Amino acid sequence: MSGLGEESQFNRLRDLLRAFPDHQLKTEDFERAAQMTNACASRGIASTPTDMLICAVARYAEVAIFTTDRDFTAYSRFLPIRLFQAESV
Fold first, then answer.
1. Does some domain include residue 41?
2. What band does 67 get if pLDDT is binned at 50, 70 and 90?
3. What are phi and psi of 38, to 5 degrees?
4. How many CB atoms lie within 10 A of CB 45?
5. Whole-prediction pTM
6. Predicted confidence (pLDDT) per residue in 3-31, tens digit
7. Which of 24, 41, 50, 57 has its CA 20 to 30 A from that of 72?
8. Domains held by the chain: number
């Protein structure tokens, strides 16, 4: 939700996303994220801890990641994640 230019857009998206359940993070999620970080780094792909945590949780929950961030396309070449990519406006 970061980067939305208007507060009304943020509020609308926030309200829509509240329909989805939260995932309680566990130690294993952070461990998977670290493994994924290492897998990307060994192939020259830089990542952020937040991105890798998203990948780890999505993989465990067996859900696609909804993103307009092209970094996830790079991650998906080496990680067992699925992407649902929206066109950037």
1. yes
2. confident
3. -65, -40
4. 15
5. 0.82
6. 888 999 999 999 999 998 888 999 999 99
7. 24
8. 1
